[in-house]
Amino acid sequence: MKIARVIGSFVLGCGLGVVFHYALYRMSLPLEPFVYVNF
Amino acid sequence: MNDLQGPGLFERVLSPFPFICGVVLSFLACCVLGRMVSNINCHQDFARFHNHINFLSLHYPTAKQTLAIAREHMNNGQILVIVGGNSVLHGSYLSDQQVWTKHLQLLLGDRYCVLNFALPGMSPTEFGALVADLICRQYERVIFVTYSWPGATGVVGEADGRTLRYFYWDAYHKGLIDPDAARDARIELLTKWRAKDANHRELVLRSRIDSYLYCQDLWTTFSYSCRSTIWTPMTSSTFTRPRKQYQDLKVSIPAQYHYLPENEQAGMQLVRNSVSRHWTGDPAASPLAESIRYCLPTHLRPRSLVLIAHHSPRFVHRLTASEQQAYHAMFPETIEAVASTGCQACELGRGYTELDYIDQVHSSSDGAVKMAAEVTPRVQELARQLGYLNEE
Fold it and tell me: Is residue B137 predicted with pLDDT exceeding 90?
């Protein structure tokens, strides 16, 4: 039971770490697509 | 003090130390993975950054990813012809089989490898130009092709780009850019001018952080190869599909969409405005020449071919006689201004007909064939001058 708790905690932590990394990528994207004007 | 409450849910389920270890280790693993995939070319069978894999659909290829595409082609001993610039050289509105760089590759043959890094809305010296600059550090036989509008009072952009500045700063903070006196001086000036520009400060900070964490490289590769997570109007119903599954344009824009009536006035105004770009002073001191000097690094300029593009005769012929005279007089001065920087320059589109365009600037499929035929001997001549053909 304790091992399951440790492994579960580790896996959950891994997921959160990936989410943090992905969030940094998403924060760099603009809110709207660039509006291309022909020139 | 007595604790009358038992452990909470989190305290019962989570062990703090393994949890924090998981967070830290997975984050670091993502950083390492991002650094690894940044050097791998995931764009197999690359032809151009079509609209589903460029910024128009919120897909921002990084400097290292784009460099990986070019690097994959430099091992065959071919002469790399890197095309930069805007939608005109990107071949917007044309299918992947009718884009002018496809014809250019066929005409140049196997001795050359043409890579189209032009993107809609780019200035002549951003994105593709930076890739050419970066690849020159590793590979000698590079020719860069871009465009400019006629008139030496115009500028070719900014030292760090105009539309996609992220690309320059991404390369800069990853240590990919070599020093160049004129460009570095301009960047220093821009940094002072933009000291109070919060967007610019954020862009620079973001790029600096990303040079350690490699978030852009990892998740852009993931979005391209495995699963996209970015919703855009362009990919609305299938936005989770990996971007590599989206195909380039297979059908060119039909003739009924050429020269749309609602765009006629704007097109005419664009051409009329271009007549005012006539420069009366020394071409070497013109804004165009000065901007080329701080945008294109010194070592790239002798390998650069700048195409001074004509507008569609449908609009040029509607200018008054004096305006037409002034328009055509701009081409020699523009060529001279560009040549004073060390680049090669030539006209593109003289003698083309209305049918070779679909609007004031973009070529039709017929125009694309003519473009390739006109540029091919120029590229070959430049390759000869640079000594790339000395093995023959």
Answer: no
Position B304, amino acid: S
Say what the alpha-carbon torsion angle B285, B288, B291, B296 is, to the nearest 10 degrees: -110
Question: Closest Cα of chain A to B388: distance in Å?
Answer: 35
Which residues from chain B sit within 8 angstroms of residue A21, using beta carbons? Answer: 26-27, 30-31, 34, 213, 215, 218-219
Whether ipTM tops 0.90, in short, is: no
Number of domains within chain B: 1
Collapsed DSSP state (helix, strand, coil) of residue B282: coil
C-alpha to C-alpha distance for B5 and B7, rounded to whole angstroms:
7
- Residue B148 in contact with residue B275, Cβ under 8 Å? no
Give pTM, 2 decimals. Answer: 0.93
Q: At what angle do helices B198-213 and B165-173 cross, to 10 degrees?
A: 40
Residues of chain A neighbouring B13 (CB-CB closer than 8 A): 5, 8-9
Classify residue B2: in a domain, yes or no: no
Which residue range is the domain that position B67 belongs to?
Answer: 41-385
Q: What is the DSSP string of B56-69?
A: GGT----HHHHHHH
Query: Using one digit for the tens of pLDDT, what is the confidence trace for B31-65?
Result: 999 999 999 999 988 999 999 999 999 999 999 99
Give CA–CA dist B142/B140, Å, rounded.
6
| Interchain proximity B19–A24, CB inside 8 Å | no
Q: Which residues of B touch A12 (CB under 8 A)?
A: 14, 19, 22
CB proximity under 8 Å: A 5-34 to B? 5-18, 20-22, 24-26, 28-30, 33-34
Instruction: Report residue B284 as tokens.
Output: 């070497």
Surface-to-core class of residue B318, CB atoms within 10 Å of its CB (0-12 exposed, 13-18 middle, 19+ buried): middle
- Tell me the three-class secondary structure of B144-156, residue by residue: EEEEECCCCCCCC
Longest dimension (CA), chain B: 97
Q: Which residues of B touch A25 (CB under 8 A)?
A: 215-216, 218-220
Three-state DSSP state, B80: strand
**Residue B294 domain-assigned (yes or no):** yes
Mean pLDDT within B260-285: 90
Look at residue B199 and tell me if it is in a domain. Answer: yes
Q: Which of A1, A2, A25 to mutate to test the interface with B (most CBs of B within 10 A)?
A: A25
Answer whether residue B195 is part of any domain: yes
